[in-house]
Amino acid sequence: MELNNQNSFGIGEGELIEIIYELPLPMRLDRWLVSKRPEQSRARIQHFINSGLVLVNYKTAKAKTPLKNGDNIQIWMPPPEPLIYLKPEKMDLNILFEDEHIIVINKQSGLIVHPAPGNKSGTLVNGLLFHCKDLPGINGKLRPGIVHRLDKDTSGCMVVAKSQEALVNLQKQIKEKIASREYIAVIHGAPNSEEGQIVGHIGRDKLNRLKYKVVEETSGRYARTYWKLEERFGNYSLMSFKLDTGRTHQIRVHCAHINHPIVGDPLYGRCKKLPCKLDGQALHAIKLGLIHPINGKEMIFESELPLDFQKLLSVLKVK
After folding, report:
1. Which of 71, 151, 153, 265 is catalytic?
2. In what residue span(s) does the RNA-binding S4 domain sit (predicted)?
């Protein structure tokens, strides 16, 4: 119901949602809310809880509060954030597939996915809004249709939802690891074995807030990356990666952690002369697998390597 007056939360306009917990087994508040509100991101749910916008039995709760059968949960949903500067912009998009529910893009390096403070235009979202007239908004954020993202200087396959039904389904596929994402990269050095995995909790670097690093379990989020050595080029190697989790900068952080950073990475790479000029780091999302969110068809998309990545491989093979 919509309320315009002050209420038990001490705030004004918004939507008050009241739910009775009916599961026989206890569950953490944040996990239960994510399962009940799949259109909301986990980060947004936790922000609501930390801001005191969720009450359990009429008392403020914490994310780890255990819910029991019969508990009363009240969630105060603030009005959506205004999307006033999400302006459609004509943009050349490399479209791999499109129908009324999804669009799959081969994103170029150097393109930011969604607007943020300091980057209000020229993003993939601005281009998508021009191309897709009815792109849905997600939770009042500036990320309409965005299901997952690629870093600015990472190129490759991305799927974007064009309907709310597709959005919720694709979010579930990524969460439950039904969707698969494969990457290819050139790294400094060469690993001792042909394949393996990197496991390490990832958290923000306290000395540089723009960076992430492998940290203790208590201060980061679990992350696992599978890798395979594809080819050696002296002091460099071509590697393929599969994500078991999808943390921010995950492949870049894990590669740096094992002392084989990605070539051209401005944050985690080595400061040395590169074999050739690169538009971004030599990291490309080469393959994306998913189940079509509406018709259930299994789909696999592959994207061609950028020209600068192809040139890098050519130069390394000659050396």
Report:
1. 151
2. 27-84
> Over the Cα atoms of the chain, what is R_g?
22
Domains, in order of start, for the chain? 2-77 (3.10.290.10), 95-168 (3.30.2350.10), 180-290+292-318 (3.30.2350.10)
pTM for the model stands at 0.73
Within a 10 A sphere around the Cβ of 191, how many other Cβ atoms?
Answer: 18
Active site residue 151: yes
